[in-house]
Amino acid sequence: MISGLERVTARRAWFVPNFVVWGLPVLGEHEFVVLEDIDSTYSIHYGSTSIGQSDQEVSFDQLTDHRGNSLPMSLASPRVFPRAKGSEPVFVVGKEAASSFKIARDPDCEGTVTVDLLIMEMGD
């Protein structure tokens, strides 16, 4: 039987200090319909647009841990835990993929936010 401590230490983990977050959350893709009236000629327009800014997508292989080692290209069930160095909130957007994750800062913050990342591979 595997103890809790053995289970936690069996996972691979990386600490990435001083990661700069510039991304802002996207509120999603929204569809719209517009009715246009020009000289009694009506036109209907349909479309979709993103509301908000853009999330920051980060590939794991772009990161370097505190020892100077590059992270692998793909991780099995990764989890990313951002730790803000100040009071500005930072969060992971959606679910982490095997090769990348999205991260964003609070839109009310001015400029970029520096965080430390703890990345853990949870396995299959």
Task: Report what the structure shows.
This protein is mostly beta strands and 124 residues long. Helices cover 5% and strands 52% of the residues.
- Average pLDDT across residues? 84
Percent of residues in beta strands?
over 45%
SSE run: HEEEEEEEE
Query: How many E-type strands?
Result: 8
3D shape: elongated
Task: Strand order, main sheet: write it out.
Answer: 1-8-5
Radius of gyration, taken over Cα atoms and rounded to an integer in Å:
20 Å
Helix and strand composition category? mainly beta
Helix content: under 10%
Largest sheet: 3 strands, antiparallel
Task: Furnish the topology, listing elements before pairings.
Blueprint: H1 4-9, E1 13-21, E2 26-38, E3 41-52, E4 56-59, E5 78-84, E6 90-93, E7 100-105, E8 113-121
Antiparallel strand pairs: 1-8, 2-3, 4-7, 5-8, 6-7
Features:
124 residues; mainly beta; 3-stranded antiparallel beta sheet; 5% helix
Task: Produce a short descriptive summary.
This protein is mainly beta and 124 residues long. It is 5% helix and 52% strand.
